[in-house]
Amino acid sequence: MRIDIITCLPRLLDSPFNDSILKRAQEKGIVTVAVHDLRNHATDRHRTTDDYAFGGGAGMVMMIEPIHRCISSLQSERTYDEIIYMSPDGELLTQSIANQLSLNQNLIFLCGHYKGVDERVREHLVTREISIGDYVLSGGELAAAVLADSIIRLLPGVLSDETSALTDSFQDGVLAPEVYTRPSDYNGWKVPDVLLAGNSAHIEDWKYENALKRTKKRRPGLLEGD
Q1: Which in 154, 165, 188, 202 has the greatest CB count within 10 A?
Q2: CATH for the 169-223 domain, from 1.10.1270.20, 2.60.120.230, 1.10.10.10, 3.40.1440.10
Q3: Rounded to two decimals, what is the model's pTM?
Q4: Could you tell me which residues come within 8 angstroms of residue 16 by beta carbon, excluding any fewer than 6 positions away?
């Protein structure tokens, strides 16, 4: 897989992709993450990527021309399955969306900034808009990193135990069950006996019931199809 991220602040993305699982995924050649400085596609000596909004109002707007030039340059090299704009009013990111996107080969993430992008970018250049929550960030860079992480960890070979991702919360519509590790008795706080007895069938039944119980308590909307 290849993920190209377009941003006017590329250094914000240095850390997320240079440590832990995402770093190892790149070192293994499972994914390529390329960050592109939008200012390199500006046409003036000041490398301008934003301007005042027509009609007035507070805040600057990201210009269509450098965005179009950058996307066109990338498209001249390969075909992209999706061009995704990270936007607070996009569709809310879910595990299902991450699963779908993990099946693609080439993706572009466009990071918004300021008051957002010229609306013509959304009308003519992007194919999808995704939000990571009902709140506003300073820019789309952190959201792009979140989306990339949610996708990359699903790729075969990224996690040392590939079944781990299949048992995450939301994969089957419920939260993951409680988990415990050694010691089995700490300060009088004990691990449930069923997990220590070694009966696989009973353990699986317990995990299923525990997952349902936690979901009903913490996120009942998941069971109601919200």
Answers
A1: 154
A2: 1.10.1270.20
A3: 0.88
A4: 22, 145, 148, 149
